[in-house]
Amino acid sequence: MSPEDLIERIRRLETRGVGLFRVHRTHAGLYARARRQFGSWRAAVTAAGLDYGDAMERSRRRSVESRRRRRRAPRG
After folding, report:
1. How many domains does the chain have?
2. What does pTM read for this prediction?
3. Domain range for residue 29?
4. What is the mean pLDDT of residues 36-41?
């Protein structure tokens, strides 16, 4: 995968609302490729034109909210 393709996939993940916080678990191949090509996940996200800190914070918030919703859901 070319660096341009990789950057485009990172942008798509962010715009779809998937988040970038747990990418190492949800898209392990993409994460590994990004680290090989850019040296770190942060560098790859930054190369995609995204604010790494902001992207991580939004993803963390979504993660916390989904955990809260799961805990509140009735078990049956």
Report:
1. 1
2. 0.74
3. 3-72
4. 96
